[in-house]
Amino acid sequence: MNLSIVVTGRNDNYDGDFNDRLSLAINRNLKSLPDAEFIFVEWNPYMDRPLVCEELQKIFKDRIKYYAVHPKFHEAYCTFDEFNEYPAKNVGIRRAKGKFIACVNSDIIFDPQLVENLRRVSETNIVYRASRIDIRPDYKYVRFPLLPKFILGRYTGPTDACGDFTMTDRDTWVRFTGYCEEFPEQRLHKDSLMVHLFTSDGLPIRMIGSATHWRHPSSWANGFRRPKVGDTKWDFRKSGYKRNKFTWGLANADEVERNGIIWLE
Q1: What does the DSSP assignment read for 167-232?
Q2: What's the CA gap between 135 and 35, in Å, rounded?
Q3: Which of 260, 257, 258, 211 is nearest to 56 (CA)?
Q4: Could you identify which of 45, 61, 193, 203 might form a hypothetical disulfide with 236, taking C-beta atoms 3.0 to 4.6 angstroms apart as the criterion?
């Protein structure tokens, strides 16, 4: 299988159980796609705490490729001390080896239809998307088909929850220079901007399955409005953005491996 899956996060244990949700999801998806390359990028970690990479290493050993991005890059990128998923995903895209690269959120589990389609995907110049099914946060050991009592919502439109799963071939990701790294204070809607750029260039969207997502307390679907996401009404179609600089994905950063983790420094 010539597939890379990019997952991102940081060691802030977001919502109190991030590490548990992350490890459960990765474990399920690894078992479903044992031949895929899995990449975890830890962006802007707290340097006085254990890394998520280290916690994952205890469970998954070298089955995952681990990257840690020194906080200095975040400090140069934007002014707030937060996790910033899109430059983190670009780090993974830039270093992925697969012909196809899927950027996914940390706590989603691929359903059987999505897994089967990922195993046989072959067409390039297509945007592959998965719908998202929100499930109860206490339903940790997901079983398919999902029973209605566990389902809290569905997101099925082309850009609905597209940050949870977007995939295309590596050449297309490179041609578009990954996710937008301009407007560093704007986090919200950059996933939709990416899909908009793809489709504006004539790439078709193909829905190939669904993925579950635990509706944790700070989920936007709960009506929570997390700070430091930028303008919620940002019209990305009028932003004027086209492509990143050639250094997107921290292409020029020094890479130093320590204990199985590649640090970007």
Answers
A1: EEEHHHHHHTTSS--SSTT--TTHHHHHHHHHHHTTPPEEEEEEEEEE--TT-GGGT---SSS--T
A2: 27
A3: 260
A4: 193
Predicted confidence at residue 188, as pLDDT, reads: 87
Provide the token pair at 229.
């996401």
Q: Taking the domains of the chain in order of start, what are their residue ranges?
A: 3-264
The answer to pTM > 0.70 is yes
Dihedral of CA atoms 131, 125, 99, 253 in degrees, nearest 10, equals -90
Q: How confident is the model at residue 230 (pLDDT cuts 50, 70, 90)?
A: confident
What pLDDT, in 10s, does the model give residues 172-189?
999 999 999 999 988 889
pLDDT in tens, 3-15: 999 999 999 987 7
Amino acid at 203: L
Of 56, 24, 89, nearest in space to 259 by CA: 56
CA dist 128 and 124 (Å) reads 10
CATH class of 3-264: alpha beta
- Residue 58: pLDDT band (50, 70, 90) is very high
